[in-house]
């Protein structure tokens, strides 16, 4: 194509080898892409700019040519050398005279005539970073400025994979501009500039006039790279990563576009961006001055949703041209909704406007008017194209962010007043935005491997934690950890057990900080535990002999897994074990999971093993046999077992990802679907919908209940089916009656569920993706979730009521005093000499302390022992060896009883309390009599005893007094003192009984309206009666 004589630009680069090139650019803009990278950040280069003359000499020395080159190749070589020599002294064109420009133009035209690459846009040589070496554009050369204010170098980055370009200046201003490229043919692209960056920091939206065209007229891989095109679009040119002996030449030309001026830029937008930039700078300096606060966390350790990803990290997601109208019948679309619709439309090979028209033709007007349904349609239509176990696009960071934006769009599809300014500038940041439970539960399970319908609400609560939703940082971290888990499984399969070709390794438990111990015959064997989708493998660490691996099959019937306490000699000291058994009389594996970093590792492994066991129970109960002939009558049913297994494996992977993020629940088993549904209300109906989803499919042949035959060459008119009792999925897939072996199919809940209307006004993309409606699994899971939460609330009220009432409080009080009770009983055994050797040892230790004058150290040593015990318990708890239930007070509930029995029990309890209080009051009244000389003789005797005791304590050293009291206490039950002690205690009891209680006067109740008639007589009678009772 002829070049424009008015405006030329030439670029040079050191081109990388084509062997590592990225995929070629399609010929037209209507092609669909499988790679989704919305950002095109410039490639870094350590190539410094040198003089043109030195570069030319270097190329002349280092570049060699094959002797088989034709005359055309030789002419190209000479022309390229002449062109470079012509532009060398022109200072990128700033010093060029009209004669110099004409000479360069003539040489460029001659070089264009020998271009060997006819379709340069499809060549891998175009991708890269280019440096400007010549141009006639005065706006780029900036000749009107002093030389010290001109850009030293100009660069341009081109990415044909993302159809993006970026122009950059160097010192002193470092301005940048980004643009979208739209292919017009194999040589020409349309250029639309979208954003400027002042100083490379402050982004400003480009005016709509900033458009142009770019035509590549020459490209080869021998010498330098030259871009030749008019700069009405003001492109600059970048430089690519160097490869010393590979050079390329490229010429481009472009037509004149609409001219625009710097005055077209909105000054208010510039001021807004400057203020925003200054605010971010201030925030950054504040963070720098607080080095003890981790990035992304608050002072209390919680994630800070506001400290997410900077605006510029998400900016490139917004750069798609808006084709969908903002106004809708129910309001204006939010920015998140526009971005989601436009981006997923492009990923579907259409524009947002075309996708909207298609959706309008498919659904009724009420469905179409809800913008949330359009967001679903664009997203689900793209997701329906993939049926892999884990969606491959999750590896793309831009796709992860787009899913987050889609969840925000689904939650808030319409713009509010606060979003108006952000929508107008198209520079909205998602800092502080949180995705709610409803949006997460709708979008996340639609992506393969991210979430399961039955447990997605539990996953949301685990990720959200104490926050009201999920932030972008938490979402990206979760996906990153999930991808790491899947990558680790692939490495396990090759490195650990290559012979296990029929089993998939899920996780391996062995490390110094996280050992696995197998308890067998009171012996602890550390080793490596491996979990696969069918069995457990344990390889014990042996000091002698070969290492042996033992296997426990998890696919059989009657398998059970439970949490247990382990320890030497069956002591049960450590609550960190899991027991796996296959029934009575069979071998039981007892495994201890020690975790020096936490206490949930045992619970996580319990959930892992439970999920695999429950998976195979589900396969046996709801799935057809592997050799069942009916599998050939339903298309795709032979893959049902694999689909069910993948569901369990993905659930375990998600639990591992949450474990690495430290966002586990108290009960991790709620995060794996099969184990969760096993004990959940309405869980059997969810199991049924999963079975229909996994094994259901279109019928492919004629069958009856008597047998299955004629599976080929059947026309629709010849098909005869017995379908009265078959189950149908939302997309028409059939689950045969013969496969309904579980007793749960005949339950009332199951019958009621399957009688409901299968679908409303919606679009069924497949059995897992339905727009404007819910799948069968979603419906059943929603009912299960509602019933489960109702049960939890009911149980919470029951638990709270358990501690109400006198009997329960008495039991709790006894439980709290249990350690003191045990200590008192043990001391009583020592005092009674029930075990003489222990009593002698205790007395020897006690008298040693007394007569060695160590009594002053007893209290400090007691505190030291108490502190040591507390720290030891803390360490064991951090290792997870005490269990999460350690420290909790456990009491038994009261036996079931009716209302009358409860009233009688309360009455009896009140009688016991009344008797106890009466006896206590009598004792206190007797002490009152002694202290206040109510009985002078007894008061005198007690006073003499107290004086004698005081004299002894003043004269005799305290250690001898303490030794005597200890001797007296431990010899009372011996033969030589037993009778004497009994007579002395009897004498004390008799004297105590003779002590009268102090008199008590009870005044009658005096009401405001009435008073007793004979008040004085009633008082005297009450005093007389009480005195007689005490004397008796």
Outline the structure in words:
The protein has 1032 residues and is of the alpha+beta class. It has five domains: 71-232 and 246-258, Lipocalin; 328-418 and 427-483, no CATH class; 484-702 and 724-788, Pleckstrin-homology domain (PH domain)/Phosphotyrosine-binding domain (PTB) (PH-domain like), CATH 2.30.29.30; 823-894, no CATH class; 933-994, no CATH class. The protein is 43% helix and 12% strand. Strands 1, 2, 3, 4, 5, 6, 7, 8 and 9 form a nine-stranded antiparallel β-sheet that branches. Strands 12, 13, 14, 15, 16, 17, 18 and 19 form an eight-stranded antiparallel β-sheet that branches. It has a two-stranded antiparallel sheet with strand order 10-11. The longest helix is centred in the last third of the chain and has 33 residues, at 899-931. The termini are far apart. The model is unreliable at 1-6, 14-74, 223-264, 281-313, 420-428 and 703-723 (pLDDT under 50).
Topology:
Blueprint: E1 9-12, H1 52-62, H2 71-87, H3 98-113, E2 128-135, H4 138-141, E3 154-159, E4 164-169, E5 176-183, E6 188-198, E7 202-205, E8 211-220, E9 249-253, H5 267-288, H6 311-315, E10 327-328, E11 331-332, H7 335-347, H8 352-362, H9 365-369, H10 371-383, H11 397-411, H12 420-425, H13 437-443, H14 456-464, H15 472-495, E12 505-509, E13 516-520, E14 523-532, E15 535-540, E16 549-553, E17 560-566, E18 574-581, E19 588-593, H16 601-622, H17 640-661, H18 673-679, H19 683-695, E20 727-728, E21 734-735, H20 748-754, E22 763-766, E23 769-771, H21 776-802, H22 806-816, H23 818-831, H24 836-851, H25 858-878, H26 899-931, H27 936-955, H28 958-971, H29 975-993, H30 1015-1031
Antiparallel strand pairs: 1-2, 2-3, 3-4, 4-5, 5-6, 6-7, 6-8, 8-9, 10-11, 12-14, 13-14, 13-19, 14-15, 15-16, 17-18, 18-19, 20-21, 22-23
């Amino acid at each position: 194509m002829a070049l424009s004589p008015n405006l030329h630009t030439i670029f040079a680069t050191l081109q990388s080898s084509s062997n590592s090139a990225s995929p070629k650019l399609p010929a037209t803009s209507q092609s669909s892409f499988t790679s989704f990278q919305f950002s095109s950040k410039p490639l870094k280069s350590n190539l410094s700019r040198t003089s043109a003359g030195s570069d030319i000499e270097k190329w002349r020395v280092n570049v060699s040519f094959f002797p088989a080159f034709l005359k055309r190749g030789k002419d190209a070589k000479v022309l390229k050398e002449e062109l470079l020599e012509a532009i060398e002294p022109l200072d990128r064109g700033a010093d060029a005279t009209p004669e110099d420009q004409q000479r360069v133009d003539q040489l460029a035209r001659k070089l264009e005539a020998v271009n060997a690459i006819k379709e340069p846009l499809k060549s891998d040589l175009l991708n890269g970073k280019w440096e400007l070496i010549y141009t006639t554009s005065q706006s780029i050369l900036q000749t009107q400025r002093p030389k010290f204010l001109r850009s030293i170098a100009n660069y341009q980055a081109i990415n044909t994979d993302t159809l993006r370009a970026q122009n950059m200046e160097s010192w002193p201003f470092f301005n940048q501009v980004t643009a979208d490229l739209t292919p017009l043919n194999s040589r020409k692209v349309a250029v639309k500039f979208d954003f400027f960056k002042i100083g490379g920091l402050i982004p400003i939206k480009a005016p709509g006039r900033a458009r142009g065209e770019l035509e590549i007229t020459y490209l080869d891989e021998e010498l330098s790279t030259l871009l030749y095109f008019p700069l009405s679009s003001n492109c600059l040119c970048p430089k690519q990563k160097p490869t010393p002996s590979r050079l390329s030449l490229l010429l481009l030309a472009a037509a004149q576009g609409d001219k625009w001026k710097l005055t077209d830029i909105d000054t208010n937008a510039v001021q807004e961006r400057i203020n925003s930039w200054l605010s971010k700078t201030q925030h950054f300096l504040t963070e720098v001055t607080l080095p003890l606060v981790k990035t992304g966390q608050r002072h209390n350790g919680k994630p800070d949703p506001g400290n997410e990803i900077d605006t510029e990290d998400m900016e490139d997601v917004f750069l798609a041209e808006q084709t969908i109208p903002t106004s809708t019948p129910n309001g204006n679309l939010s920015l998140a909704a526009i971005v989601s619709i436009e981006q997923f439309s492009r990923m579907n090979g259409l524009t947002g406007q075309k996708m909207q028209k298609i959706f309008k033709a498919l659904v009724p007007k009420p469905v179409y008017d809800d913008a949330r349904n359009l967001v679903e349609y664009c997203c689900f239509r793209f997701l329906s194209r993939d049926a892999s176990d884990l969606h491959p696009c999750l590896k793309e960071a831009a796709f992860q962010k787009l899913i987050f934006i889609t969840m925000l769009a689904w939650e808030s599809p319409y713009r509010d007043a606060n979003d108006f300014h952000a929508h107008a500038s198209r520079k909205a940041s998602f800092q502080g935005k949180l995705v709610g439970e409803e949006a997460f539960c709708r979008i996340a399970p639609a992506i393969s491997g991210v979430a399961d319908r039955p447990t997605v609400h539990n996953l949301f609560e685990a990720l959200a934690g104490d926050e009201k939703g999920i932030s972008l940082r938490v979402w990206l971290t979760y996906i990153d950890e999930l991808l790491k888990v899947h990558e680790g499984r692939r490495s396990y399969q090759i490195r650990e057990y290559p012979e296990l070709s029929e089993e998939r390794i899920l996780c391996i438990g062995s490390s110094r900080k996280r050992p696995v111990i197998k308890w067998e015959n009171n012996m602890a064997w550390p080793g490596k535990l491996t979990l696969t989708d069918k069995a457990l493998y344990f390889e014990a660490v042996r000091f002698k002999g070969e290492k042996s691996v033992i296997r426990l099959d998890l696919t059989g019937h009657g398998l059970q897994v439970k949490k247990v306490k382990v320890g030497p000699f069956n002591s049960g000291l450590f609550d960190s074990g899991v027991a796996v058994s296959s029934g009575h009389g069979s071998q039981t594996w007892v495994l201890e999971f020690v975790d020096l970093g936490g206490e949930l590792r045992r619970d996580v492994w319990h959930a892992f093993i439970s999920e695999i066991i429950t998976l195979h129970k589900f396969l046996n109960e709801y799935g057809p046999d592997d050799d069942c002939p009916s599998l050939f009558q339903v298309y795709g049913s032979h893959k049902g077992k694999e689909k069910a297994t993948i569901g369990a494996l993905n659930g375990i992977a998600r639990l591992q990802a949450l474990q690495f993020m430290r966002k586990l629940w108290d009960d991790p088993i709620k995060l794996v679907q099969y184990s969760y549904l096993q004990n959940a209300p309405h869980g059997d109906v969810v199991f049924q919908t999963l079975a229909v989803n996994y094994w259901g499919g279109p019928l492919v042949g004629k069958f009856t209940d008597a047998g299955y035959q004629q599976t080929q060459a059947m026309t629709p008119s010849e098909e005869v089916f017995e379908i009265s009792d078959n189950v149908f999925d939302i997309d028409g897939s059939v689950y045969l009656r013969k496969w309904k072996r579980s007793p749960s199919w005949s339950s009332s809940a199951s019958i009621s569920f399957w009688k409901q209307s299968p679908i409303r006004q919606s679009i069924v993309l497949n059995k897992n993706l339905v727009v404007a409606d819910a799948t069968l699994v979603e419906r059943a899971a929603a009912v299960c979730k509602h019933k489960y939460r109702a049960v939890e609330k009911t149980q919470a009220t029951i638990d709270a009521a358990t501690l109400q009432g006198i009997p329960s409080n008495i039991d709790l009080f006894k439980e709290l005093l249990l350690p003191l009770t045990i200590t008192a009983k043990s001391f009583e055994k020592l005092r009674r000499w029930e075990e003489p050797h222990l009593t002698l040892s205790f007395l020897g230790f006690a008298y040693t302390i007394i007569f060695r004058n160590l009594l002053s150290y007893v209290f400090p040593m007691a505190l030291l022992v108490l502190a040591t015990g507390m720290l030891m318990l803390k360490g064991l708890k951090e290792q997870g060896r005490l269990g999460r239930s350690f420290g909790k007070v456990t009491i038994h509930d009261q036996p079931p009883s009716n209302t009358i029995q409860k009233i009688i029990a309360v009455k009896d309890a009140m009688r016991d309390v009344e008797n106890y209080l009466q006896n206590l009051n009598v004792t206190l009244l007797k002490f009152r009599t002694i202290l206040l000389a109510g009985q002078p003789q007894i008061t005198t005797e007690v006073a003499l005893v107290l004086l004698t005791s005081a004299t002894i304590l003043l004269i005799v050293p305290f250690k001898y007094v303490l030794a005597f009291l200890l001797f007296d206490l431990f010899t009372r039950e011996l033969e030589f003192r037993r009778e004497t002690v009994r007579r002395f205690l009897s004498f004390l009891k008799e004297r105590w009984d003779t002590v009268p209680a102090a008199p008590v006067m009870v005044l009658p109740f005096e009401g405001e309206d009435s008073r007793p008639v004979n008040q004085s007589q009633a008082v005297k009678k009450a005093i007389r009666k009480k005195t007689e009772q005490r004397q008796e």
